[in-house]
């Protein structure tokens, strides 16, 4: 059962289905406890950190066949925060992410591959800066159980990946500002009403 929960959840979140009949069930991301943290090397001197928040998204989870599960997530590019307003403005300029369509970054899964009792690889299409590319998230189940306050199925997951800025038409100043960007994702999701 843990493997079944894991496979579903690795599409960013899921929780134990309670019905005896298997059918896709909807789970919604908890925006207040979901975020993306990123970092990149600056001129070899330091590592710069930032984050995105304000997720919206849903997961359709098929308990019997997790390969039928899916996830769709989006967030506003303007939610990016690095701790310095001028840097944030520069990163959202034409030098970097100035082509973000409708001001939104989105990810839509195309497959989930279970790799262990609490790990999986999630493949999906990332749309960023007017470019859509396939990316793979290395994901881990943190917990899948009843939320102690909400009293409904809840799940939490972490995932990582590495992106190349140049793949998304945002590679200016490389290699001085590293082309590679390390991504860390942590999300919670709740069963939809």
Report on the architecture of this protein.
The protein is mainly β. The protein has one domain: Lipocalin. The chain is about 10% helix and about 50% strand. The chain has an eight-stranded antiparallel barrel with strand order 1-4-5-6-7-8-9-10. About 30% of the residues are buried. The N terminus is likely disordered.
How would you summarize what this structure contains?
Helices cover 8% and strands 50% of the residues. The chain contains two helices and ten strands; from the N terminus they run H-E-E-E-E-E-H-E-E-E-E-E.
CATH architecture: Beta Barrel
Head-to-tail CA distance between termini: 23 Å
Number of helices: 2
Supply the number of structural domains.
Answer: 1
- CATH fold field value: Lipocalin
Overall body shape: elongated
Order of helices and strands: HEEEEEHEEEEE
Structural class of the secondary structure composition?
mainly beta
Helix content estimate: under 10%
Could you name the ranges where pLDDT drops below 50 across 5 or more consecutive residues?
A: 1-21
Mean pLDDT over all positions: 85
- Tell me the strand order in the biggest sheet: 1-4-5-6-7-8-9-10
Integer-rounded radius of gyration: 17 Å
Q: Work out the number of β strands.
A: 10
In CATH's first tier, which class applies?
A: Mainly Beta
Q: Could you give me the name of the CATH homologous superfamily?
A: Lipid/polyisoprenoid-binding, YceI-like
Query: What's the main sheet like?
Result: 8 strands, antiparallel, barrel
């Amino acid at each position: 059962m843990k493997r079944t929960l894991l496979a579903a959840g690795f599409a960013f979140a899921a929780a134990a289905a309670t019905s005896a009949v298997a059918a896709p069930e909807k789970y919604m991301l908890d925006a207040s406890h979901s975020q993306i943290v990123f970092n990149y090397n600056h001129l070899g001197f330091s590592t710069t950190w930032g984050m995105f928040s304000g997720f919206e998204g849903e997961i359709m989870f098929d308990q019997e066949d997790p390969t039928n599960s899916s996830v769709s997530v989006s967030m506003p590019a303007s939610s990016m925060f690095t701790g310095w307003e001028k840097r944030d403005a520069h990163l959202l300029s034409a030098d970097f992410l100035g082509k973000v369509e409708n001001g939104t970054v989105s990810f839509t899964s195309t497959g989930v591959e279970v790799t262990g009792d609490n790990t999986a690889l999630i493949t999906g299409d990332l749309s960023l800066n007017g470019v859509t590319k396939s990316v793979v998230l290395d994901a881990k189940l943190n917990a899948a159980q009843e939320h102690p306050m909400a009293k409904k199925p809840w799940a939490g997951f972490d995932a990582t990946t590495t992106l190349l800025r140049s793949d998304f038409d945002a590679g200016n100043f490389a290699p001085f500002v590293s082309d590679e960007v390390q991504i860390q994702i942590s999300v919670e999701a709740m069963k939809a009403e």
